[in-house]
Amino acid sequence: MTAQALTSDLLERIAAVSFPTLGHFLEDGFVDPAIQSLLDGVKVAGRAVTVRVAGNDAIAMNCALLALQPGCVLVVDMSGDHLHAPVGAVTAAAAKARGAAGVVVDGRATDVEELRQTGLPVFARGTTCLTTKRVYGTESAVNVPLQCGGVTVHPGDLVLGDSNGVVVLSPEAAGQVVDKALASDAAEPGLLARIASGEPLESVLPTTAGQ
Questions:
Q1: What is the average per-residue pLDDT within 63-85?
Q2: How far apart are CA 164 and CA 147, in angstroms?
Q3: What's the pLDDT tens digit per position in 185-199?
Q4: What single-letter DSSP state applies at residue 163?
Q5: Other Cβ atoms closer than 10 A to 171
Q6: pTM for the whole thing?
Q7: CA dihedral sign, ordered 163, 169, 172, 177
Q8: Predicted confidence (pLDDT) per residue in 86-116, tens digit
Q9: What is the CATH superfamily name and number for domain 3-185?
Q10: Can you tell me the distance from the alpha carbon of 110 to that of 127, in angstroms, rounded to the nearest whole number?
Q11: How far is CA 199 from CA 76, 157, 195, in A?
């Protein structure tokens, strides 16, 4: 099996996990919880295409959109700018036309009603009317390592997002945890059933690290 096929299989398996389960086993990769979905009931899993936007550079976003492949998630580093929105109705429509699974921006978004109508999952620090401009920032770049919500993101990393937040994992990190996470999810309904049945909590809930 090729490396790409292996990653595709891993992506399918990690997408089946309840993403908060990952928090039981990992400490790194969790994006600042201020970055939240602007749509309800979303679940996204895809490979990262990255763009660093500097100096209100809307042109960089256009270049990143052209780099998108079906199923990818566009991750946007606004270089610390949490005032200007690089994502709006046109950007979202273009990303959806390229087959993007979603957009994660360490900053703001705009045209929120139109974004919701597209159905494209967009994660951001909120909304604004102030947007980037049609200028070219010499420090902008596409498909480079960057920072998003305190997490380093490399092109090709696995980006996982739902109504709880966003997690970014290297394929290696995802591979090390996916089996444990799936097993934990499979066990949870039984635990909930035991609690609902009235079984004493002392026999259900672990009280030591080894349990």
A1: 97
A2: 20
A3: 999 999 999 999 999
A4: T
A5: 17
A6: 0.93
A7: negative
A8: 999 999 999 999 999 999 999 999 999 999 9
A9: Ribonuclease E inhibitor RraA/RraA-like (3.50.30.40)
A10: 5
A11: 48, 42, 6
